[in-house]
Specification:
The complex is a heterodimer of chains A (about 120) and B (about 375).
Chain A (H helix, E strand, L loop, with lengths): L4 E5 L7 E5 L6 E5 L5 E5 L13 E3 L2 E3 L6 E3 L16 E7 L2 E5 L15
Chain B lengths: L15 E2 L9 H12 L4 E5 L8 E7 L2 E7 L5 E5 L14 E3 L3 E2 L6 E2 L5 E3 L18 E7 L2 E5 L7 H13 L14 E10 L3 H9 L4 H4 L1 H6 L19 E2 L29 E7 L3 E6 L2 E11 L2 E10 L1 H8 L6 H21 L13 E2 L6 H12 L1
Antiparallel strand pairs in B: 1-18, 2-11, 3-4, 3-6, 4-5, 5-10, 7-8, 8-9, 10-11, 12-17, 13-14, 14-15, 15-16, 16-17
Helix pairs in contact in B: 3-7
The chains are: A mainly beta (about 120), B alpha+beta (about 375).
């Protein structure tokens, strides 16, 4: 059974922005949407090494800051090239202000050069 | 580079010397002007409302540099050199745009609207890279009269002293330029003139009215006193309100009613009068009771200057112009003609600046003597 870990506090998050958590490998990104929901996905774009936490959140999707692929925060699915593969979505539960994340057991879709860490 | 002053004429002499011809043609002189004047002083670059919301950007030329002016999310209007901190490519390409990031198209180095480096390929594996040090290099920004002013100097001249102080002092307390509320006006018409002449010829033309009776028939009909050759700008930087002719109803191409109300806060001395000042090095401000005309110049080469001219009216007037209820064409046409007449004269003067016949320069008549103050300033600044 997978155990959730405390990734951060809700107080660490800014609505519409992401927070990179690099205490896990590969790093994840936690987002607070303008609507108030909290999500966690892999931080690294599947196209090229870029931090999705630095991207833009809109309509429960995050746009990679480098190119224009966006990923669903709900399913991880990508909408348009250059990225082709989804990011993993990690299960989030809130315990008070604590953001608890249960990491996905799937293999990550890391970009070239980031396969093994 | 020859910028030594000629000997002053004897006291009482009618004619004062101009600059020598090479001041208007020499690439070395022009380079020195770009460095010591345009890349140092405050330059008026665009109307602030041209950037209506965060992410709107424009590129402008200041001296020899291209500058991005952008409305940021959290820090108002900011301006940066259009140079990627990575390998130097132009970050913004084109004249204007809207985007939520400023991204170089070469290696995708990506900057926030506040200028910090936000993302780059492999940036997470380079944790020692300082996001501010490797952000876009900022330049100093001020907003005044509803315009964005930038200075590229490391330590810019004191804006309050050099720009505000000078303009306020010259207009005087009562005739304050503030009365026109220029920051609240809106642009109804804007025209760009690509002028084949040195920027100083354009300033010198603007400072005097000895030419008015010859080349500005419409303007001289509206302001008959211009036929005496005296401009609104006078010796010592003083500004004189030039009165409209008795039968003139408005500052329009044919002197007819403009159909517009006076701007609400102007003083009695500003009614039926035209005022003009030069804000060195590249701005002219012309005020009449119901609108304001602002010119800003960008020198491109010794022989070429781009002049952008805005006609500013009360916001409600511009609303009515946009909805088709009101027409300000006759008001705009007057100064548009003045511009075309002036710039044609400057273009016909420029080729002579390299003539053997003008090597030693020409002459300033008494109503032009105050242009000598501009020349003194120019020599002092380039020294």
């Amino acid at each position: 059974m997978q155990v959730a870990f405390r990734a951060c506090s809700v107080q660490d998050l800014t609505a519409g922005e992401g927070l990179r958590i690099d205490s896990v490998s590969p790093p994840i990104a936690v987002f607070l949407t303008e609507e108030g929901s909290v999500h966690a996905v892999d931080d690294t774009c599947t196209h090229q090494d870029a931090s999705l936490a630095a991207g833009w959140v809109e309509d429960c999707r995050v746009e990679c800051p480098l190119h224009e692929s966006t990923f669903s925060l709900l399913s991880g699915a990508v909408d348009q090239p250059p990225a082709k593969r989804p990011v993993r979505v990690h299960h989030v539960t809130l315990h008070g202000d604590d953001v608890l994340v249960e990491l996905s057991q799937e293999a990550p879709n890391l970009p070239p050069g980031m396969g093994t860490v | 580079m020859i910028i030594d002053p000629l000997d002053r004429p004897l006291p009482g002499a009618s004619l004062h010397p101009t600059l020598t011809g090479d001041a208007y043609t020499d690439p070395e002189v022009f380079r020195a002007e770009q460095a010591s004047i345009f890349e140092t002083m405050w330059n008026c670059v665009l109307r602030a409302d041209a950037l209506p919301s965060p992410g709107h950007w424009r590129t402008v030329q200041v001296g020899r540099e291209e500058i991005i002016v952008v409305r940021s999310r959290s820090a108002g209007i900011r301006a940066y050199y259009n140079v990627c901190a990575h390998r130097g490519m132009r970050v913004c390409t084109g004249y204007e745009g809207v985007s939520r990031k400023l991204q170089c198209g070469y290696h995708a180095w990506t900057y926030t609207l506040e200028g910090d480096l936000a993302a780059a390929p492999n940036l997470t594996s380079m944790p020692d890279v300082d996001r501010e040090d490797y952000g876009l290099r900022p330049v100093h920004v001020r907003e005044w009269l509803g315009y964005v002013w930038v200075s590229l100097a490391d330590e810019p001249p004191n804006f309050d002293q050099e720009v505000l102080g000078e303009v306020r002092t010259r207009f005087g307390e009562v005739e304050s330029i503030d009365n026109y509320g220029i920051d609240r006006l809106r642009v109804a018409e804007s025209k760009t003139y690509d002028v084949g002449a040195n920027w100083k010829l354009i300033i010198e033309n603007f400072m005097e009215c000895y030419h008015c009776a010859t080349i500005h028939p419409e303007l001289t009909e509206v302001i008959p006193e211009f036929a005496d050759g005296l401009a609104s700008q006078r010796a010592g930087g003083a500004v004189h309100g030039s009165g409209f002719g008795q039968d003139v109803a408005g500052f329009t191409v044919d002197g007819s009613e403009s159909g517009l109300s006076e701007l609400p806060s102007i003083a009695p001395d500003q009614e039926r009068r035209y005022y003009a000042i030069t804000v060195k090095p590249q701005v002219f401000i012309n005020t009449v009771p119901d609108h304001v005309i602002v010119h800003r110049m960008t020198p491109i080469s010794p022989e070429r200057t781009v002049v952008e001219c805005d006609w500013l009216f009360a916001a409600e007037v511009v609303d009515r112009v946009e909805s088709g209820e009101l027409d300000v064409a006759r008001s705009v046409e007057l100064f548009h003609r003045v511009n075309l007449q002036d710039f044609e004269a400057c273009e016909l003067t420029q080729p002579s600046m390299s003539s053997k016949a003008y090597k030693g320069g020409g002459a300033l008549v008494p109503s032009e003597h105050h242009i000598g103050e501009f020349h003194e300033w120019w020599r002092r600044t380039l020294r």
